[in-house]
Amino acid sequence: MKTKGDFKGLIPFIIFVTIYLGSGIVLGMAGVEMSFYQLPAPIAAFVGIISAFVLFKGSIEEKFKDFIKGCGHEDIIVMCIIYLLAGAFGGVSKAMGGVDSVVNMGLTFIPAQYIPAGLFVIGAFISTSTGTSVGSIVAIAPVAVGLAEASGLSMALTLAAVMGGSMFGDNLSVISDTTIAATRTQGVEMRDKFRENIGLALPAAVITIILLIFLGRPDGMVEMAASYNYETVKVIPYVVVLILAVAGLNVFAVLTGGILLSGFIGLLKGDFTTLSFANEVYNGFSGMQEIFLLSLLTGGLAQMVAKAGGIQWLLESVQKRIKGRRSAQLGVAALVSLTDAAVANNTVAIIINGPLAKEMSEKYNVEGKRSAALLDIFSCIVQGLIPYGAQMLILLSFAKGSVTPFEVIPLLWYQHLLAVFAFIYIMKDKEAQTEPTGNPA
After folding, report:
1. Given CB 3.0 to 4.6 Å as the disulfide criterion, which of 103, 127, 160, 209 pairs with 411?
2. ∠ CA(105), CA(268), CA(254), 5° rounding?
3. Strands (DSSP E) along 280-332, which ranges?
4. Which residues form the domain of 429?
5. What pLDDT does 97 receive?
């Protein structure tokens, strides 16, 4: 049975976002330091969930079942386990001196002004090879934070470079879940969608790298030594994690292997005992508590919002405004963007909108490869920009509160440029110019 669209279904999510963002803005205007970290994000999500239980129809038991179904969604559970393992790997590796060694090695061989551009390229390579932006962020962000702190680079710009590179590959990789979802729902070959995408993503990436080279310099004058002390053996876990990730090994196996390897090196070098190693693993788990809870709660809230017709209302509202080929493409972009903002999961957003995008594309003669590219591009743009998305949350978790999402978002040049190129792509569509009012099939 098809869910009936209802704006009321969106209200709990609007409440969550308003409280989450509004509290930070208000406290920031009042001069409170780290204003966006004063109210824990899971509490804002919890208020949204309470409002959903109050506003939505049905018994408490029915609504609770919907909530638990969302919390237990496969994508949510997978993400939560990744958070725990990423926290443990980062904690153990740092405790045995791995972060310091990697940072000092990087500062020895890479001029500080080229670090952001290098991080973008590495992130793009890893995410394209592995098909996961989160995996790329997990592998690079701890080192990026250390490099920024040691070299005087802008933390926000350094993290933005990591995010941009990671989203580049997630959008293009043939093994990315977003690519698979977009091509399957539109019935097109991956190579055709890739060709459409690369013409937009590559120019945006090249311009971003140029900007990072010229603008990614340390704040002020920083005295840089000719070399720094580092132990090559302590760099090995990061290298192994990167190699295994690029080789396509399961992310759980990659991170677990990294934890064990870092632990072995730490024990060998006397950095900690077996007991302290176990405690570092647990501390890593504990450090991911907030993002773990937020992911679970927002997953449950998203399911309730969808069940109440909030997502369907978005779909229907956009569909009413479709008049021709160009507006159909803008409609696909708007639908997947709004849905991703509502559910904070780009793959889910594509799956939800895929059938409707295919229907609209067939009606207005939009090639499947174009609609597939637009679904993937705009879902990835929004997913990389929203402050409550998994990518942003896990990225900032490594910075330990030293930077807010609203310091990073303006510096996400790749996402902004990709959006510009995508809009030009739609507006310059030659077929749309010859069919200004559409040509329903």
Report:
1. 160
2. 65
3. none
4. 7-434
5. 85
Q: Using CA atoms, how far apart are residues 355 and 352, in angstroms rounded to an integer?
A: 7
Q: Is 144 helix (H, G, I), strand (E, B) or coil?
A: helix
322: left (phi > 0), else alpha (psi -120 to 50), else beta? beta
Q: Which two tokens stand for residue 103?
A: 């940072």
Kindly indicate the confidence band of residue 440, based on its pLDDT and cuts at 50, 70 and 90.
very low
The one-character DSSP state at 335 is H
Tokens describing residue 306 = 């969808």
**Per-residue CA distances from 361 to 49, 190, 319, 378, 419 (Å):** 35, 18, 12, 16, 20
What gap in Å lies between CA 205 and CA 295, rounded to an integer? 29
Contact 83, 295 (CB under 8 A): yes
Q: Cα(387)–Cα(403) distance, rounded to whole angstroms?
A: 12
Torsion-angle region of residue 210: left (phi > 0), alpha (psi -120 to 50) or beta?
A: alpha
The DSSP secondary-structure symbol of 131 reads S
What's the structural domain count of the chain?
1
Q: Tell me, yes or no, whether 394 lies in a domain.
A: yes
Side chain identity at residue 65, one-letter code:
K
Do residues 303 and 73 touch, judged by C-beta distance below 8 A? yes
Q: Which two tokens stand for residue 333?
A: 């972009």
Contacts of 321 (CB under 8 A, 6+ apart): 327, 331
Q: For residue range 364-404, what is the model confidence (pLDDT) as tens digits?
A: 888 999 999 999 999 999 999 988 787 888 898 888 778 88
In angstroms, how far is the first alpha carbon of the chain from the final one?
27
What angle (nearest 5°) sits at the alpha carbon of residue 393, between those of residues 388 and 397?
Answer: 150
In a domain, 2, yes or no: no
Q: Do you know the residue count of the chain?
A: 441
Residue 439 lies in a domain: no
> Which tokens belong to 261?
């390897």
Structural domain includes residue 23:
yes
Q: Which residue is it, tokens 């303006």?
A: 410
Q: What are phi and psi of 402, to 5 degrees?
A: -80, -10
Extract the tokens encoding 260. Answer: 């064990």
Q: Which residue has the tokens 């580049």?
A: 168
Task: Read off the tokens for 374.
Answer: 């637009």
The tokens describing 2, both together, are 């098809």
Is 2 in a helix, a strand, or coil? Answer: coil
Mean pLDDT of 64-82: 85
- Phi first, then psi: give them for residue 368, nearest 5 degrees: -60, -35
Q: State pLDDT tens for residues 224-268.
A: 545 567 788 888 887 887 677 667 677 788 889 989 999 999 999
CA 351/CA 178 separation, integer angstroms: 9
CB 78 within 8 A of CB 119: no
